[in-house]
Write a structure and sequence with these properties.
Elements (H helix, E strand, L loop, with lengths): L1 H24 L2 E6 L7 H16 L4 E6 L10 H7 L4 E5 L22 H7 L5 H11 L3 E16 L14 E4 L2 H9 L3 E4 L5 H7 L4 E5 H6 L8 E17 H6 L2 H36 L3 E3 L3 H21 L2 H11 L2
Parallel strand pairs: 1-2, 1-3, 5-6, 8-9
Antiparallel strand pairs: 3-8, 4-7, 4-8
């Protein structure tokens, strides 16, 4: 009888140990929402992150990606992540403009007038980025990495746009309030037009001057309806990958390190890739189309930035203390 109880006790201990071991090695799963298709350049960037995390954690951490807006639209992501309804998500930086006004800084024209300035401001240790990241963290969402999408240029028909004076009395397509404010300042007429409606608007003459990224100008064949692209690089489109802070704190320090190391790698790869894609698109427009590519001189760029100073000042004054600090840090670069 004693041997029987020893056998049972031993079996129970073995089962218990097996259960403990199973619990220790059980995979943790993070659910990730994206409004973009998996084949989109940003979707591919997310997939690269998932692959790195799962390989480096040896399957201890899994990432489930729900793409193409299966769960949430872009403007719903901040609330969904902050509340814990989803662990991770991708959101365009400007969507945070309502809760973190300083997030609108990258839409302020000529605050970051070059790829180099954008790269510097978005680097993890830069004061501009750290200020925005910390403000978003207060909402319950932690910024894991930034996703570059490229700078915005100006498109025109009858002549190139080389100076702010060229916008006077022109109807200009705008993407956001800060750039609309700038167009007002220089005597133009801002008109909000969705990205998907640009080509038709240019064909119909709804606006005289357009705004678009270099790669989009190529992919959407805008060179067929507009004659000039001026490389103003006047604002930047940035996306963020965010994570619920409670979900983050549930990860072990080792898994947190894996997540952040993987995030840094895919962030750098994407930013380098986007810059090269923009250069390739510019070369295509120069050599393969009738569109004229206009590069501005340093003096012309300075004139644009000077004209944008009232817009920058107004943004800093009206958007809170952090926005003021962000503008000051950007201008000091």
């Amino acid at each position: 009888m004693k041997s029987f109880f020893k056998l049972v006790a031993g079996a129970g201990l073995a089962i218990s140990l097996m259960g403990t071991a199973g619990t220790a090695t059980a995979a943790q799963t993070l659910r990730f929402t994206s409004q973009l298709p998996a084949k989109h350049v940003l979707g591919q960037n997310i997939e690269a992150f998932r692959t790195l995390v799962e390989e480096r954690s040896k399957g201890e951490l899994k990432i489930e990606i729900y793409d193409s807006g299966q769960l949430y639209k872009g403007n719903e992501v901040p609330q969904a992540v902050s509340s814990g309804a989803i662990d991770m998500g991708i959101v365009e930086l400007g969507v945070y403009g309502g809760t973190v006004p300083a997030a609108g800084a990258f839409a302020v024209p000529f605050l970051f007038p070059s790829d180099e300035a954008i790269r510097k401001a978005t680097s993890p240790d830069n004061a501009v980025r750290k200020g925005i990241d910390n403000a978003i963290l207060e909402t319950g969402a932690r910024v894991i990495w930034w996703q570059a999408y490229g700078a915005v240029q100006m498109l025109s028909k009858k002549g190139p746009i080389r100076s702010p004076a060229d916008l006077k009395n022109k109807k200009v397509r705008v993407l956001s309030k800060p750039i609309g404010s700038f167009i007002d300042d220089v005597g133009g007429v801002p008109i909000v037009i969705d990205g998907a409606e640009q080509v038709l608007a240019y064909q119909r003459g709804t606006v005289d001057v357009g705004m678009s990224g270099t790669t989009a100008t190529q992919s959407r064949h805008m060179y067929e309806v507009m004659d000039y692209i001026t490389m103003t690089n006047h604002s930047a489109v940035e996306f963020l990958v965010i994570m619920n802070d409670k979900s983050w704190n549930k990860l072990s320090p080792e898994l947190q390190d894996i997540v952040m190391q993987s995030a840094r790698e895919v962030e750098t790869e994407l930013r380098n890739s986007v810059e090269q894609q923009n250069l390739d698109a510019k070369t295509f427009l120069q050599n393969e189309t009738s569109m004229e590519v206009v590069d501005l001189t340093p003096e012309e760029i300075e004139a644009w930035r000077k004209a944008a100073e009232p817009t920058m000042k107004r943004f800093a004054e009206e958007s809170g203390e952090l926005a003021r600090q962000v503008v000051e840090a950007a201008l000091a670069q």
